[in-house]
Amino acid sequence: MWAKDPPLAKPALCSSDRSPATLASRYTLWFCVDLTTSIRYVKGVGPPRARTLESKGIRTVEDLLFYLPFRYEDRSNVKTISQLVPGETATVIAEIDSCQMPRLARRDLGLFQATLSDGSGQVLIAKWFHSPFLAKVLEPGQLVALYGKVEWDYYERALVMLHPEYEVFGEEDELAESLHVGRIVPIYQAIGKLTTRVLRTLVYHALESLDHLEDPLPEYLRRKLELPELNQALREAHFPPQGQDLRLLNAFRSPAQVRLIFEEFFWLQCGLVLRRRKARLKRGIQFQLTDRIREQIKKMLPFKPTTAQKRVLGEIARDMASEHPMNRLLQGDVGSGKTLVAAEAAVIAMENGYQVAVLAPTEILASQHFYYFRRLLEPLGYRIGLLIGSLRPKEKSWVKERLKYGDLQLVVGTHALIEEDVQFHKLGLVIIDEQHRFGVIQRQKLMQKATAPDVLVMTATPIPRTLALTIYGDLDVSIIDELPPGRKPVKTYHVTEDQIERVYSFVRREVEKGHQAYIVCPVIEESEDSSLKAAEQTYEHLSQRVFPDLRVGLLHGRMGAEEREMVMDQFKRGEIQILVCTTVIEVGVDVPNATVMVIEHAERFGLAQLHQLRGRVGRGSAQSYCILVTSRLGDAARERIRTMVETTDGFRIAEVDLRLRGPGEFFGTRQSGLPVFRVGNLIRDQELLELARREAEAFVNHPPSREELKRAIHYIQRHWQRRYGLIEVA
Ligand code: ADP
Ligand code: MG
Q: How buried is 349 (Cβ within 10 angstroms: 0-12 exposed, 13-18 middle, 19+ buried)?
């Protein structure tokens, strides 16, 4: 394989005895490795290097080969120093004659400079600013490759490269000239002491001794999408063939890279599609949807549902009436009325004699849901309970007792609901308000308290489609894409701290019109105490100095549940006009008469959080305002604030948030269930993910043959199940 198809081949550089043919024969297979072989058997990997690699999770040849370059450099243009032309970007290989760390005039810029020659008659000076550490890396006598832009320095009267990429050639390096220069060269993120150069050599050796690989990707797909075989893809992703477009490579869109990215997404999506199919085949509860139930729902509704709400309820009701369990994700922007839809689904379940569990991530949100459901459902005679950690033991056991004997029909709760001693009489519907805070495992724990219950997952803020596909790819999706009528988009303004007096007089004018306002105080990352103090100080200041004649209230997370409830009630009834608070109001609070949201130190909040906070106003028919108060802004903060001012569309905001923070941080939690990709990147490779999803659906639903599907399932189980937490794909 290797001998007749040498992708590492390149034109001979200088000395003819190092031509590719000679190289190939000199390094022909010591012995063959496959993907599962330990890296310890790769030429050049001794125990110390193995330990370093293993610390990064690289244990097998496969791990090593999927450690792809993050960048490529075209070093096919190798010149001697005398051939260099100012203005061009080129590679030279030369020896370091001397190194200096000159101090410039009055300032120490950490300049490190080296003078090099290559026997061609001229010298080259390389300069790096702010790089004193180079004194430990570069020294006279070393042979180095430099890659960078050449300039003519009149002052030095010499050719100069500013901040060139450099690579030190070791003496033992026989491969050097064919591997590290004279071609498009892969650049790897260093791992501990293993430089890009060492890694390149190791990858080369691994590829060289690699036995022929079985290509797991279905053949018809490879042809249809014109993807190279795995073998070729791996080789070319590390050592691109001569003449490949560098821009394509650095955008991760060379055929080899596309193939590897697509494949990674494809197997994950196949796993998710298979899991969804399997769940759909299970027998679940077949809820009846009678006219009487429709009547009940109508009676409960405080207003006419929007078209989107109706459509989504239709989708949910159809799922509930089917003989298979529902697994549905309900997406919608803040304030789009998801909770109302959830309440409708709850009525269907309760009318069928089943119990409903509503799981919320925090006590505050659980309490909010509890009041909301109670207000809607108790008048119709349904029995509703709340189960959260901060209840007194006696109250807790009372709720548990009533759940067990079926006296409570709906319970809202936090993690407390998942605990082992919580039993249901006849649980039929599980509603999870996720906010991405529950792992798959927790979801399943709750579902185990019943046999095949219907599951509805709600998310508090929109999730970009790529993430939704990755995390919730096994769920059906309903989207509420319409706000209740009469809502005016919230007007958002950005002001700096020095204008705070104007902000306060604006608040006063709104309050004098009969409206209410929130003033949210900064979160201080390190300490909850200090953020509390900030809220308390602001409260003192506002209630005594700024608005002594208005009714100002304070709400924060450290208050007891009852005290919190009291303050919220006062605010709801309008007895408190201005509510100073921490982010406890981020979710769930619903006071339509509030029209102003002032967020102090808005630069300290994430986009999703700002969007949630802003969602607390604009819930009535009056024009509402969100005022973001900041100090001076860094770049990322400026973009967040600008996004908030420009749009109120939660999906757009989520996209920006994902781009700014990256997929890992988007959910702000480790247990988000987001798989770790080795090649794919959810931001860069969105279109490949979509493609993989479509092809996975087509493949699972219409496989070319049953054997082929079986083989794929087997492959996923062996290779991907554990890595992606794909429980039970088949
Ligand atoms: P979400 O949970 O999606 O953020 P909520 O369910 O909390 O939204 O609803 C936001 C507000 O809109 C609540 O005050 C709710 O009562 C109200 N609301 C929901 N649906 C409608 C509707 N169809 N017409 C008018 N108001 C609605
Ligand atoms: Mg809500």
A: buried
